[in-house]
Amino acid sequence: MLPKSQRRFNPLIAALLVGLFWGGVWHLYADYIGAFGNQGWWGIPLVILQAPILLTAQRILLAWVYNRTKGSLLLTVLFHFCISSSAFLLSVTYPSNAVFLVWAVIIDLFWWAAAGAVILLDRGWWAAKKPESGRVESSPQLVQVQG
C-alpha cells in the first residue's frame, strides 16, 4: 500500500494516509475493539489513542525505515516485529481505566516524539520531489543467475 501511495504523494503524506487506514480500519476491530470492549465508555478514548493515533506515528517510522533501506521488506518487517513484540513483552495490567488512559497518552507522545524527530531531522526521506514520471523507484528485483 505504501509504494502505491508514494507514487501519488510524498512519503510523509503517504505514511500519514496509510497510518490512518492501518490504525483506523485494519487494526481497529481485530486488535482494539475486541480488547477494549470490556472497558465500557473508557474504551472509546483508549481505542482512539491506541489505534489511529498510535499506529499512525508507528507507520511514519515504518515508512522511514522502508524508504531509507531502499525498500527492504526484511528490515521493515523486522521493525514491525519489534514494535509488536514489545507491546506484548512490556504490557502490564493497569489498576484502573484512568491510569490506563494516562499511560496510553504517554506512550502515544513517545511514539509521536520519535516520528517527529525523524520528520525534523531527516527531511531528505520525505521532502524529496517526485520523479518526473510520478513513479517511485521500485525496490531491487531478484536477478536470476544461470549456471
User: Please, what is the average pLDDT?
Assistant: 80
The profile of the biggest β sheet is: none
Termini Cα gap: 36 Å
Tell me the structural class. mainly alpha
User: How many individual β-strands?
Assistant: 0
Helix content: 55-70%
Strand content: under 5%
**Structural domain count:** 1
Describe what you observe in this structure:
With 147 residues, the chain is mostly helical. The protein has one domain. 68% of the residues lie in helices and 0% in strands. Helix 2 runs antiparallel to helix 4, helix 4 packs antiparallel against helix 5 and helix 4 packs parallel to helix 6. The protein is elongated, with a radius of gyration of 18 Å. The relative contact order is 0.15. About 9% of the residues have low confidence.
Topology:
Elements: H1 2-8, H2 11-26, H3 28-36, H4 43-68, H5 73-89, H6 97-121
Summarize this, please?
The chain is mainly α and 147 residues long. The protein has helices spanning 2-8, 11-26, 28-36, 43-68, 73-89, 97-121.
Q: What are the main properties of this structure?
A:
0% strand; mainly alpha; 147 residues
